[in-house]
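Hey, can you fold this one?
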Amino acid sequence: MPYNIDPRQQAIRDEVREFCQKEVLPICRELDRRPEPQQFPHELFRKLGKAGYLGYVQPKEYGGCARSAIEYATLIEELAYWDAPTSLLAAVSELAMHPILAWGTEEQKKRYLPKSITGETVIAFSLTEPEAGSDAGNQKTTAVLNGDHYLVNGEKIFIMHGDVSTLTVLFCKLSEAGADSGKMSALIVESEGLEGYSAKTLEYKMGMKAATTGRQWFKNCKVPASALLGERGKGFRYALGTLDGARIDVAAQGVGIARRALDEACAYAKKRVCFGAPIAKLQAIQWMIADMAIRTEAAALLTYRAAQISDSGQKFTIEAAQAKVYATEAAKFCADRGMQIHGGYGYIGEFTIMEKLYRDQRLIEIYEGTSEIQRLIIAGHYLGGR
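Sure. Predicted structure:
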């Protein structure tokens, strides 16, 4: 039984468990093993929308559930416990909707949020480029204002939902008459049927396969001037503000994966007999279990703390970075130790979930800011003074 610091958390866990046992567990192995290129699971995505999981923190006036950050972290953690890619389907939608909610006009919110919340619209957050990953400010995508529209050119890569999205929050550099402003801005791009736009699914992902990843190209795409999100030149601030919250959610994914690895390891250790007794009686196994449990609980507390600070309205950049680093690395430790405890039965996906957990976990140390970037943020805070 996971530790809850808020009385609402267990009710969320119970609800998500019921949903996953009915809608996710029967298909998650099949989705993971589909031949390349992977196909986006539209049916599951719409079921997540119907359950309210795509707009968990969005206001009720737009069709969301208006839940708190701690409740949302619990939702993502529990989804990740049962199937990490399913948690990512939900998290990416919230990620992409956040800048619209935070900085969009009322007209933009009413136009784009309701359909994104139900899953009718697949929305993407298009920031990363071939030369702008951790160095997110190094954007090459441009939008030149030409009368009542922008002419957009550029390329995005490693974009979750980007292969199938019909709506994209696009980060780029705006200019007039070819004069580069040098500052990043954001556009809300309706990509479905947009002339000059193309996308593809990136193939042979190591894990998180059901939550597909895309590459996008914009070649002289005409986007209405009304698509500008917020203020011109504020895109970098919008991106960073969005990623701060997303890092709590990635930490929650880490907690869910770590918990599942721990539970699987304990169950296997108690039933696997070696040298005449369950391997759970071996001190070597007990120490691995103990270390997994310690890291899992510590990761949960760091994640919940960051979520609580977010709910209080205070700045939470450092707490989110700390939670993401520790929880994602705790998940790696637990997946690795769980694999070791299972031995050959863990390595072969035919027998247990460990092989899938091991592959799915690896991504969470990379996206929404690598562990190395998080450490730079944390160190800069302490070395620069509070």
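DSSP finds twelve helices and nine strands in the chain. Let me know if you want another pass with a different chain boundary.
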